[in-house]
Design brief:
The protein is mainly α. It has a single domain, classed as Hypothetical protein af1432 (Orthogonal Bundle). Helix content is 57%, strand content 0%. It contains 10 helices and no strands. It is globular, with a radius of gyration of 16 Å. The N and C termini lie far apart (37 Å). Bound molecules: fe (ii) ion (FE2). Fe (ii) ion (FE2) binds next to α2.
């Protein structure tokens, strides 16, 4: 049986600091690697949330915000074609391209229990928290006739307490991720609704 545990905790070369893909290059990679439009949308939504968090909450400069955005945009890039080796393939591709190690570590830590990589900095912790919740909130929006229009935090909270709804989303991971950051679940849900509703 394959394991997706990456078996290491350092990624990339610190000497590559500041070496980033452009957003256009990242979209090209995404389009090449991910035929599934819904999966691409998920990554674009996570990217929008990550970029917004970096600029609004962390007051990050443009280059740092680009790192957050790239990590969001590429975190599941290998999921569709290499499900058994998900994460390892994209991590190795970005290492081959000499990309900034912060971006690679962030991608590697977006599922600590699966990939065996602990989130270290705020970027790592936020991708872990945003990833599952973003997909969950989108699932809630999709069952509403008006999608995101009028979607309230309490509706998302109610669905979270319904184990059969989007059962593949780990409530345990969401709780674990939230325990590592200084924001309430309700606040993060509102933030995600506000920032991913216009992503198409
Ligand atoms: Fe994801």
């Amino acid at each position: 049986m394959s394991t997706r545990n990456l078996g290491r905790s350092t990624f990339g070369d610190p000497g590559n600091a500041g070496n980033l893909l452009t957003i256009e290059e990242a979209h090209t990679l995404l389009n090449d690697w991910v035929p599934n439009e819904k999966l691409r949308l998920h990554m674009k939504q996570v990217a929008a949330n990550m970029k917004a968090w970096a600029t609004e909450k962390e007051k990050a400069d443009e280059q740092t915000a680009l790192k957050w955005e790239l990590a969001g945009l590429l975190h599941d890039a290998d999921w569709e074609k290499y499900p058994d080796d998900h994460c390892r393939i994209i991590v190795e591709e970005l290492e081959r391209r000499n990309i900034d190690s912060d971006v690679i570590h962030c991608i590697a830590s977006h599922g600590p229990k699966v990939f065996g990589v602990e989130p270290v900095n705020n970027m790592d912790k936020m991708i872990y928290a945003i990833d599952e919740l973003s997909g969950f909130i989108h699932a809630v929006a999709l069952i509403r006739p008006t999608l995101y229009d009028g979607l309230e935090v309490k509706s998302v909270m109610k669905r979270l307490k319904t184990p059969s709804f989007a059962a593949q989303v780990s409530r345990e991971d969401i709780t674990d991720a939230l325990s590592r950051i200084d924001i309430t679940l309700e606040e993060l849900i509102q933030f995600i609704i506000d920032h991913q509703k216009t992503v198409v």
